[in-house]
Amino acid sequence: MNENRTLWKLGTLPPGLITFYSTTKPLEKSWHVLGLGYNPSISMEEIHDAAVVHFNANMKPWLDIGMNQFRPLWTKYVDYDMEFVQACNFGQ
User: Fold this and answer.
1) Of 68, 79, 80, 92, which is least packed with CB atoms within 10 Å of its CB?
2) Which 3 state secondary structure label does DSSP give 29?
3) Residue range 70-89, pLDDT digits in tens
4) Percent helix, strand and coil across the chain, each rounded to 5?
């Protein structure tokens, strides 16, 4: 229904919010740290205390424009020996 993007512009979050409307519970803010793709001032303490970190926005850690201080949070889980990962040309 959103093929021409008239209902919403980006991603799957809006239909997810509609689907689960009034069935979700709020979480403590510290549980989910977001902004690792745009906010360089997030402290490592805040990140290590979180259950989930979210590389939202444009500066993803696997891109050249990713923020160096957050990149190890992602790269420690990458298996660079995997053929698919090598084909993606991620820098180490």
Assistant:
1) 92
2) helix
3) 999 988 988 889 888 888 87
4) 30, 5, 65
Residue 32: C-alpha distances to residues 58, 81, 88 (Å):
18, 30, 28
Cα Rg of the chain, angstroms: 16
User: What is the distance between the alpha carbons of residues 46 and 31, in angstroms, rounded to a whole number?
Assistant: 9
pLDDT > 90: what percent of the chain?
30
Question: What local confidence, expressed as pLDDT, does residue 17 receive?
Answer: 82
Inter-residue contact 56 to 67 (CB < 8 Å): no
- The alpha-helical segments, DSSP class H, found in the chain are 13-19, 44-49, 71-75, 83-87
DSSP-derived secondary structure letter, 39:
-
Strand partners, 32: 52
Nearest to 30 by CA among 14, 16, 18, 42: 42
